[in-house]
Design goal:
- The protein has a 5-stranded mixed β-sheet, with helices on both faces. Strands 6-7 form a two-stranded antiparallel sheet.
- Helix 4 packs parallel to helix 6.
- Strand 6 and strand 7 form a beta hairpin.
- The longest helix is centred in the middle third of the chain and has 20 residues.
- The protein folds into 3 domains: about 160 residues, Glutaredoxin; about 140 residues, Alpha/alpha barrel (Glycosyltransferase), CATH 1.50.10.20; about 45 residues, no CATH class.
- It contains 15 helices and 11 strands.
Amino acid sequence: MNRLENEPSPYLRLHAKNPIDWYPWGQEALKKAKKDNYPIFLSIGYSTCHWCHVMNKETFADQLVAKVLNDNFVAIKVDREQHPDVDEFYMDACVKMTGSGGWPLNIFLTPELKPFFAGSYFPKEDGLRNIGFISLLKRIKWLWENDRQSLVVGSENLLKDLPDYYSQALFNRSLLENQLSDLKTRYDTKNSGFLPAPKFPQLHTLLFVLDQGYVLKDKVAIEMANNTLKSLLAKGCYDQVGGGIFRYSTDSSYKIPHFEKMLYDNAFLIYTLAEFYRVTKELYYEKKALEILTYLEDRLQDKSGGFYTAEDADTFEGEGCYYLFSKIEIKSILNESEFEFLSQYYQIEKKVTLKGKSIYIQRIKNLLGY
């Protein structure tokens, strides 16, 4: 048993039975790293993060992984909802090193907390697309013992460059116009949006495109922003029955969601919808904003008045099973023309037997006027 069993964070307690000798963020771990002159393996996540759960089950629960980590590193587990400051700093470093970020955030540090290698999800074994975690640990162990100076120098250069990384993003008109032009070249004219699958909502990007379209009187930009937001809201990335937007779409057309819902995504969606309504005066956006408010009050608000940070994607039956209906179940609710209409917008697969959906079935009937 490691040191996480009595931590207040449910995310940390989730890892309490790992064979890894985890430390929570604090002086005890840092003192051990300095005393033993070990590099630090810092892993950051949160309780409703799907890939955090996957890496926990596939990698952190493995005895061989634990042996390599325990013998050569000081392992620290952080809940980003407990330590957003720690998460923000090391996520910035990860983005600078790799060009992208995400959770779980796995980052290697010197005993002085200087980052020198970062990544997100790592499987236990090597694969075609990913570095195997055990191989990565052994490689970093070798570098630490045989070429430590290069790791330290690289880390110091990274930290020195981080302020420049932000200064390059100082706003000016040329930068804004170049960014809008780049987004136009990356726009998905068939499905809308600016990324290949998986597609995240990118609400900040939509607000930027809308704002620049309005300032420059650029009808193409405004149309891009409107089409993308409406695609998000009209298809499977938005919970048409229970309300709320999902974390992202696993396909390019926003039909198939990853079923995690985040408080901050939905809260920011309300602001986004308000801005789109202000610019376009479309009542559709006002209606959707009110739906999101209702969802937050119904599903994420605690009895004491506070709000939960997320709804988990994982269930005992599998990812997102609470939201899934079989073709037979849907046909029992809808007539043939309604079913054909629904099939145009949603991915309808083979028969799945699921439980606990009576409230959703009733809401479907309510929406259709039953």
